[in-house]
TrEMBL record:
<dbReference type="Pfam" id="PF02310">
    <property type="entry name" value="B12-binding"/>
</dbReference>
<dbReference type="InterPro" id="IPR006638">
    <property type="entry name" value="Elp3/MiaA/NifB-like_rSAM"/>
</dbReference>
<dbReference type="InterPro" id="IPR006158">
    <property type="entry name" value="Cobalamin-bd"/>
</dbReference>
<dbReference type="GO" id="GO:0003824">
    <property type="term" value="F:catalytic activity"/>
</dbReference>
<keyword id="KW-0411">Iron-sulfur</keyword>
<dbReference type="InterPro" id="IPR036724">
    <property type="entry name" value="Cobalamin-bd_sf"/>
</dbReference>
<keyword id="KW-0408">Iron</keyword>
<dbReference type="GO" id="GO:0051536">
    <property type="term" value="F:iron-sulfur cluster binding"/>
</dbReference>
<protein>
    <submittedName>
        <fullName>Amino acid adenylation domain protein</fullName>
    </submittedName>
</protein>
<keyword id="KW-0949">S-adenosyl-L-methionine</keyword>
<dbReference type="InterPro" id="IPR051198">
    <property type="entry name" value="BchE-like"/>
</dbReference>
<dbReference type="GO" id="GO:0031419">
    <property type="term" value="F:cobalamin binding"/>
</dbReference>
<feature type="domain" description="B12-binding">
    <location>
        <begin position="2"/>
        <end position="143"/>
    </location>
</feature>
<keyword id="KW-0479">Metal-binding</keyword>
<dbReference type="InterPro" id="IPR007197">
    <property type="entry name" value="rSAM"/>
</dbReference>
<dbReference type="GO" id="GO:0046872">
    <property type="term" value="F:metal ion binding"/>
</dbReference>
Amino acid sequence: MNGRRVLSPVLLVGAGTGEATCGILYLASYLRRGGIEAFVRLYDGDQTEEEVARSLEALVARVRPRLVGISLKWFHHVHRALLLARTLRELDPEIRIVVGGNTASYWWRELKELDCIDHIVLGDGERPLLALCQGEPSPPNCVTRAPDGTPRRLPLEYVQGATNSEDVYYSHFNDIFLSHQDRHAFSGWVAPGKGCGENCLYCGGARGNQKAAFGRAKPFLRSEESVRRDHQEIAPRTWQLRYDFSGSSAEFLQGTWAGVDLSRHSCMYFLWGVARAELIDALAGTFEHVHMVLDIGCFSEQQRHEQMRRGLLKQCASDQQLLEIIEHCRRHKNLDVEVSGIAGLPFASTATLKEEVRLVERMISLDCLVGYQRLEAQPGALATEHPARFDMVSEARTFTEFLEYFEQREPGDVSVPMLRFRDAALERAVQRTSEHVDALARKHEEKKRRVVINGGTRLLNTAPATFQVKLGDWLGAHHVPAKVAQEQVTVVRSVEGTSMACAPSLSPRRFSDPTLDQGEDGRILLAALAAFERPTTVASAVTQLGAKVKLDPHSAREVIEHLVNGRFLQPA
């Protein structure tokens, strides 16, 4: 390509454990259409630094990437992003290491000083990343290095909008994943649009930061055709679709669903603003089941209105509007509602705390789930940058403070720095209320999920998907020794998306993986599911399990309860 050094293959990974942002799937699809052999590692379950090193070593050996892109979208992944970059540098110093995403764009000045990072992509990444892979000397939106090694920031020339994002859509899902397990982990995220036009005081991705990092002054909806291509690509490969955008009207979404059968899919819709009846009806009429999350900012109407009056919170429903929305949702038997809000926002008082509890209790009485968490410190958020304005203190504000906080966390710890009130008495009251509401919400959720089981309870295997695959294909050839690659794995998905991967013929002595139920454990789980292929009483299934897999009655009931809790078995 005009003498340029093309960087291909490319490996894209997320900086956090669990499912990475769907952004790397859009990027990999775009690169594939641009002639670059791109792969993703979507799911990462590694906890320790040793596990991270082993996984990356296997991935690098499998892909032989010339460039690795690390998605640093969320601020609480900054330590892990640097761990990935340093480990990759040690594994192969020739690999070009690129970071991008909201947090990378916000902290680019600090990240550019680190020698484990070669390039930082600011803002929208599709065109800049392709330019890097194609060896362009001046890729747009990039912080790169001059010939003498000094960092240089190139202009923010690529800003996606409604008229120049038609070429951004999902494709090549059969090519970009390195294992069936990784593709199976995809939760179905679709981005109908990008950006935010609000300046909520608690959010690091608010309008001001969007303008600074992405060059985008206001949000936009992608073209219907591009979003329809997303649905066409992923609908045959996922059990649900997830959306997180306020600007999608019923008419727009219905246009993007045209020609795609979603009648057996679930949908998670996280709505930032006030839900319209037409959108609720469109979702319920399209999907088999819908879980709608209504974000109301906070559970105190007084506090909510004060923040909106000051321009510190997006437009949120009043309590009366919220009740009317819930009443409309209740007309649809296949739609359930979760109401989400943040505790400990500015302008809290004894009166607002009482309001919070009353509204939460009302939501629970209407059988709505409640999402509730304390105010966290987000880099760039108004409350984090200027906590004194709200008589608060932040547990972290600078890059160094955030990095040190996350470096000190133990594996599995998901805590983040918080914003707290200077007034010690108010802080104690807010914390007591938060703990009380958490307990109410948790008790309600547990009650909704609880299934009382006795010998006469009739259960049915309701798993909507069961399939068999070779172990080497399921975990990936880079992860599985050749001697066990042909072993059969039976993958079962519950109605809520939880998966079990059973390898009954594979002894843990030959090969072990924490995501598998192997040997005797796998045989028992599959036998338990088989016992309920038709509506069957628990007592009858316990007898069958005793005869087939020599399981004592107490252990058999424990296995059945485990499958009920995972929603693999449901009351008939």
